[in-house]
C-alpha cells in the first residue's frame, strides 16, 4: 500500500493515467506529458518515473505482446485524501477545521465558495458528522 507522497513529475504522470486510462504505454504517456507541459522528455526519464511509481505501489503493468501498459492502482480520490491528511497534519496539527479556517482567513472567499462551505457543514451535521 502506498504511503508516500508523489513528486510533481510523478503526480503529472498519475494525472494522465487517471484522465486517459485505464491503460497506457510509455510512449502514450510521454506524448501526453509533452503536450500538457510543452516540453520534451527523454524516454529513459519516463521509464524511471514509471519504475518509481510501480515500486511505490501507485501503478502496475501488464504486457500485451511486446508492449507494456501501465494502469493506476490508486484512484485520484484516495490520493487526494492522502495529500489532505499529510497537509493538515503537517501544518495544522491534524485539524481539518483549522486548515479550513486558515484558508478562509487568508483569502476573501467569494459568496459562492462560502455558500458551498456552509452547505458542506450542514450536510455533515445532518449526517451526524463533526460532533
From TrEMBL:
Alphabetized UniProt keyword annotations: DNA-binding, Transcription, Transcription regulation
Organism: Hominifimenecus microfluidus
GO BP annotation list: negative regulation of DNA-templated transcription
UniProt-listed SUPFAM superfamilies: Winged helix' DNA-binding domain
Family statement drawn from the similarity comment of this UniProt entry: Belongs to the BlaI transcriptional regulatory family.
The protein's name in its UniProt record: BlaI/MecI/CopY family transcriptional regulator
GO MF term list: DNA binding
Gene3D superfamilies, per database record: Penicillinase repressor domain, Winged helix-like DNA-binding domain superfamily/Winged helix DNA-binding domain
Amino acid at each position: 500500500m502506498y504511503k508516500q507522497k508523489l513528486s510533481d513529475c510523478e503526480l503529472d504522470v498519475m494525472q494522465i493515467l487517471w484522465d486517459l486510462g485505464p491503460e497506457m504505454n510509455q510512449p502514450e504517456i510521454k506524448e501526453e506529458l509533452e503536450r500538457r507541459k510543452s516540453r520534451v522528455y527523454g524516454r529513459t526519464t519516463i521509464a524511471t518515473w514509471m519504475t518509481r511509481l510501480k515500486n511505490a505501489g501507485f501503478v502496475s503493468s501488464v504486457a500485451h505482446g511486446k508492449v507494456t501498459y501501465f494502469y493506476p492502482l490508486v484512484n485520484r480520490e484516495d490520493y487526494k485524501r492522502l495529500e489532505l491528511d499529510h497537509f493538515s497534519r503537517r501544518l495544522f496539527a491534524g485539524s481539518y477545521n483549522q486548515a479550513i479556517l486558515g484558508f478562509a482567513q487568508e483569502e476573501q472567499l467569494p459568496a459562492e465558495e462560502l455558500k458551498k462551505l456552509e452547505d458542506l457543514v450542514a450536510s455533515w451535521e445532518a449526517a451526524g458528522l463533526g460532533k
